[in-house]
Each structure stands twice: as C-alpha cells, then as structure tokens.
Write a structure and sequence with these properties.
This protein is mostly helical. Helix content is about 75%, strand content about 0%.
C-alpha cells in the first residue's frame, strides 16, 4: 500500500491531520514526477543552452537535447519504470528540436514550450474563474476522487480553485518575464533565464497546491465506493440464487 492509498482521518478540530498532509504530499510528489522527473525535464534544455553558449551551433545543440531526451526514456523502459513523465518530456523536446532545426534559430527551440506554458497559465486561470478548476481534473484521479469534488465535496472544490488560480498567476508571471526576452533578448540570455525559471515557479505552485489541499476535506474515494457497490450487488445476487435454490 502506497502512502496515498491509506485512509485519511480528519482532525476533529478542523485542522489538517499529519496523515492528511503526508497523503497529499505523496500524491503530489507522484503526480508531478518527483525529483527524478524534474531532473529529466530540465536536463535536455540545460544541455541545449550549454552547448549553444559554447559554440552557437543550433543543429548540434538541438540534436544533443533530443538525443538525451530519448535516452532518458530508454533508461526508464529498460528499468521498467513509469514513463509518463519521460514521454511528455521527450515530446516537448522533440517539438522544440523540430522548431529549432526548421527555423535555424536557437529561440525556436524555446518557443513551443513558452507558448504551451503561457497557454497553461491562461487555462488554469480561466478554469478557476468559471468554477471548473483544471487542477481538480488533473489530480482527481490521483486521489481516486475523480470529479466527485465538483458536487459532493465543496471544500475540495474551493481548494482546487485556489490552487488552480495560483498556478495560473505563477505561470502568467513567469511568461511575462520570458516573452519580452524572446522578442528583444538574445538566444543565450533567454536560454539561461529559462533554465533559472524552470524549477522555482513549479516548486512554488506545488507548494501552494499542497497547502490548499492539505487543509481541505479528505477526498471521496469513488473507486472504493464503486467496488463496494459492485460487491454488494454480487452478494445480493448470491443471496437471491441461494434463496431460489
């Protein structure tokens, strides 16, 4: 049993229990890839900007970044580890590599990721404002609550709304810094600022998510409910057959 499979016991005083904090932390750690996932996400971009800083060769930089992204996926496959974070990373790097090679510009490597990140910022913000927080859609299956928070758990809906708004504001602030650099800075400056801003905003967003969810009511385990209902139906059917026999 993993730490986020354990049942959560709410604190009668209304404060988040240690179990609730630990379960939320473990689930978020798993959902966002943990330390290894973060390193795998950063490494291709770091390699690109390092090589480009040294020799200004867009093609060599792009090929090296793409190669290490593929290598990371292969290592995970050989180790039979989960590859969802590695595959998402290699897809993003692949698009960046294609843009860089097509445009012949190092900035082309960064542009798809910047557009995607800014789009996420808008999506998180709008989803919070319309009352259908995107983070709840993403994390609902992780907590085995799916979308039950929308109608059955208003405290968690409120927490997801706050967290989604935090993600939106943090992402939009990040790209408000990066896009002027893309337009008016050089590729090397942009690359190093991108690397510097890769981790801190993500850590801050995850921290806010943990803070809001740890204080929210426990999730409703709809998977367990469904399994219990199915088992009850099977028991009732067995009882009917036994009575008929």
């Amino acid at each position: 049993m993993t730490s986020f499979d354990k049942p959560i016991t709410p604190d009668p005083a209304g404060e988040p229990s240690e179990d609730q904090k630990a379960v939320t932390q473990a689930a978020l750690f798993d959902a966002f890839g943990g330390i290894r996932g973060t390193v795998e996400t950063m490494l291709p971009g770091l390699l690109f900007v390092m090589i480009y800083t040294i020799n200004k060769d867009v093609r060599m930089s792009a090929i090296a970044a793409g190669g290490v992204a593929v290598l990371l996926v292969i290592v995970r496959l050989l180790r039979k580890d989960t590859v969802k974070h590695a595959f998402s990373g290699v897809f993003g790097v692949g698009v960046g590599v294609a843009f860089a090679l097509f445009t012949g510009s190092a900035k082309g490597f960064y542009l798809p990721g910047m557009i995607y990140g800014a789009g996420l910022g808008v999506a998180f913000t709008l989803s919070a404002l319309v009352g259908f927080p995107l983070l709840g859609v993403v994390l609902g299956p992780v907590f085995k609550e799916n979308l039950s928070w929308r109608t059955r758990n208003p405290g968690r809906k409120k927490a997801y709304t706050k967290a989604s708004l935090a993600w939106g504001i943090i992402f939009l602030a990040k790209y408000a810094i990066l896009f002027p650099l893309y337009w008016w800075g050089d590729a090397t400056q942009l690359g190093w600022v991108l690397i510097a801003l890769k981790l801190p905003p993500m850590v801050l967003a995850v921290y806010f998510t943990w803070m809001f969810l740890a204080k929210a009511p426990p999730p409703i385990d709809v998977i367990a409910e469904w399994e219990a209902k199915e088992e009850a139906e099977k028991a009732a059917e067995r009882a009917r057959r036994s009575a008929a026999g």
